[in-house]
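Forum: Protein Structure Q&A
Topic: Joint prediction for protein chains with partners

I've read a bunch of threads here and the consensus seems to be that you should model interacting components together rather than docking separate models afterwards. I'd like to see that in practice. Below is the full input, 565 residues plus whatever partners are listed. Could one of the regulars post the assembled result?
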Amino acid sequence: MSTIVSVQNLSKTYGSGLKALQHVSLDIAEGEILALLGPNGAGKTTLISIICGIVTPSSGAVEVAGHDVVNDYRESRKLIGLVPQEIALEPFETVMNTVRFSRGLFGKPRNEAHLERVLRSLSLWDKRDSQAKELSGGMKRRVLIAKALSHEPRILFLDEPTAGVDVELRKDMWETVRELRASGVTVILTTHYIEEAEAMADRVGVISKGQLLLLEEKAALMSRMGKKRLRIELQSTISSIPPTLSRYQLELGSDGGSLVYTYDVQAERTGITALLNDLSAAGLSLRDLQTDQSSLEEIFVGLVNAEDGQNG
Amino acid sequence: MNLQAIKAIYIYEMARTRRTLLQSIVSPVISTSLYFVVFGAAIGSRIEEVEGVGYGSFIVPGLIMLTVLTQSVSNASFGIYFPKFLGTMYELLSAPVSFWEIVIGYVGAAATKSLIIGSIILATAGLFVPLRIDYPLVMLLFLVLTCVTFSLLGFIIGIWAKNFEQLQLVPLLIITPLVFLGGSFYSISMLPPVWQTVTLFNPVLYLISGFRWSFFGQADVSIGLSLAMIALFLAICLAVIWWIFRTGYRLKS
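Posted by a regular:
Agreed with the consensus. Here's the joint model:
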C-alpha cells in the first residue's frame, strides 16, 4: 500500500518550553486504520494538530499525499477531515447548515445528495433540522464526524473519538470507522483506550512523552511482545510449590488447586514440555490446562513503564 | 482563491444575523430612533440651526456613524470570537483557506450587516426630519469604507479578546466615547478653541465630518483629509491583521 501521510523528524516545543513532540517519524499507509496510543499529554493531539495545520511545527516536515502541510497547505488540507476531541458546535445552528458550512469551507460546491448520504450513514438524517443544542452528546459527536466527512476526505483523523461515550455508542462508533475504512478512507485515531486500538486498528503506534515508542502491525505487536499464561488446574490442592519446580517461577492460585506459568511466545523454548514432565515427576496430577495471551494494555503499560524506568 | 470557503463563511455569518434579527437589526434602529426623539425633537427644538442645517437633520450623519461604528466593531468581534469561545476555530484553522479568505468572509458579513443597519437608519431618519444628500456616491463610499474598516478593527478585537468582558471593553470604553466626542451631535466650531484642537486628535471626527460633508456639503475638516484618514485606518487595520496571521497571534500555538 502507498504512503498517504509521511511524518519526518517532527518536533514541537511550545512557548512554555513544553516539548510536546521529539523527533517523531512515521508513515501512514493509504486505507489503513492506525491507532495512536498514549497516556494523556503524550503528544498525540499535537501530532495530529500539526498534520491538520492547527499547530505549527518547530522542526521536521509532514507531507500528505506528497503535499507539504505548511507550504502546500491547500492541497494537503483538502484531503483531511478532522474530528476533534472536544465537542465544539455552534449551539443554535442546525445540523444540515453546519455540515453544509464545513463542505463549503473546504472548497467543495454544494452537494446535497452527498450530505444526505453522510447524515444517513451516521443516523442523523432525521435530526438534520435540529439545532445542535437539542442533540445528545453522542449525536453531537456524530455531527462532528459528519462535518469532517462532508468534503469527502481521503484521510480522517479522530482525536479520542469515544472519550466519555457510553459502551453501546462506542461500539457503534467502531462500526462507523470500519465502514469508513471499507469505503477507502484512511483512519488515524488517537485513544487511550487500549480496547479501542485492539478492536479496530491495523497498526498501533505508542506515544509517550512526545516520542513514538513503537509502531507496528497490531497482530505482530501482540505476538512479538505478548506473553502467554498457562493455567494448570491440579487434581488435588497443594500448600506450596515443590522446590523442584522453582525454576519455572510458578504462581500458586489462592485455593492451592492451580498453578500459573508465564512464558514468552517468541522464545525458542517455551519450557512447557519440561514443566509438564517435572510436574509429573513431582507427583502432581493435572485436571485441566488453559492458555491466555496478554492484551495490548499489558504491552502498553509495560512499554510506558520501561520508558519511565529508563528516564527515571 | 477558495471562493467557496468565503461564500460559506459569509452565508453562515449572515444566517446568524437572520436568526437574531431582533437583536441585530431592530434593536439598533430603535435606539437610534430614540436619539432622534431626544436630541432631534426635544433638544433640537431649542437649537435653531447648525451652519445652516436644521439640528434634527444635522445629527443624522453622526447618528448613522455612531451606530455603524459600534455595530461594525461588535458584529465582527463577536463573529470571530464566537468560534474561539466555542472551540470551533479548529475547523477554520484546518480548512484549506488562507487567512485573508477568512477575513473577507467574516469582515464581509459584519460590514454587510452594518451597511444594512446604516441604510435602515438613514431611511428611518427620513421619517423624522427633512433630509438631503448632496453627494450620494461619496456618502456611499464613506459608509462602505467605514463599515469595512471598523469591521476589520472588530475582527482584531475578537482575535485579541480572551473573554466576553474584553470583547465589550474596547467598544464601550473607546469607540463610543470617541464617537460622542467626535462631533456626532455638534460641529466642532461650537467648541472653545482649546477643545477644537483636542478634538482634532480624535480619529472619528474625520469620519463624521466627511460623512456629513456628503450630506450637506459642509464639514469640520476638508473632505480630502477625511478620506485620507479613513484610508489610513484601513491600512493600519490591514497591517495589524497581516501581522496577526503571520505570527498566529492568539490563534495558533
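The CA atoms of residues 227 and 264 of chain A lie 5 Å apart.
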